[in-house]
Amino acid sequence: MGEIKKKVFFLVRILFVAAGLVWGWKQGWFSREMLGVLGQINVWIFILAFLFYMAGQVVVAFRWWILLRTQAIFISIWSAVKLHLLGLFYNNFLPSSVGGDLARAWYVTKHTDKHFEAVLSVVVDRIIGLAGSIAVIVIFYFFLPNRQQMDLSMRNSNWLDVFYQNRTMLISALIIIAAIIFLFLAIPRTRAVILGYGVQTGRRLFGKLGKAIVLYRRSPLEVFAVLLLTIGLQILTITGFWLIGRQIGADVSVNYYYVFFTLSWISGMVPISVGGVVLVEGPLAYMFEHFALVGTTAARAVAVSQRLIWMIGSIPGVIVHLSGMHLPKNFSIDSEKDAV
User: What 3-state DSSP class applies to 51?
Assistant: First the structure.
């Protein structure tokens, strides 16, 4: 049943991304004008933004390392960085239902008898990352230059127009996805898997969250520290994209970037895409265009530049995967000497 479930979500993700790319092609996301705007980015500014992003990834790995130590699971910081980079590559490039988070958890559980605590550290790491994003949104939303006008725009925006303009693509995608789901529902065995998946997943998530609260409440200072760390790294990463945006006609208050980028990251967590493709770029460009009043091409270029940096930043994960640096022979665990 597990293999059938993976195949279902594999097909749904591929179709979603394919439909999004077709839509992007028709809307001019891959036009010469877009390439021209991206070509305006200063190379050194792009490199600086990339370094900010990679520094943020190292901080994320350090955050996870702290959470592991809180549960007395000791690996070196370098091992945590390698596993995080590997997970980053999996998240951005592999259309599977496993994902980078589960890959990290799987490799760690191969080196410790504290399986539950190891897996839970990854879950808590993601929860803290989400909490940090929400905190950034709440904090900087109140500093937006035209917040009242933006509130009014959101209330008056007609989302039906967006759906109507892209109705052909959306209807086609829905028909294909519905046909696949119907096909699998027609088979009794797969029907049981699909219908039971939502309930089982919900129970698992709430169960893990409850256990996480019990375990990590013993170390409130560590949890609070990693939350502050998360907010800082997100601000650093987004500041890099703000520097890029200023080069390509999206020279608006950095507060817009802090709010819009974190919102798009949350949108990208919905597991129906590969690496959040379409789910991140679409809403991000829409918010810049309609709420920060940035030009269409510039707004899209900001979103595309982020994807480019994400893809380049995944290359170290490819090296880790091909070289086998993430395998058991390359690092040990549960040893105090590995904690430094």
Answer: helix
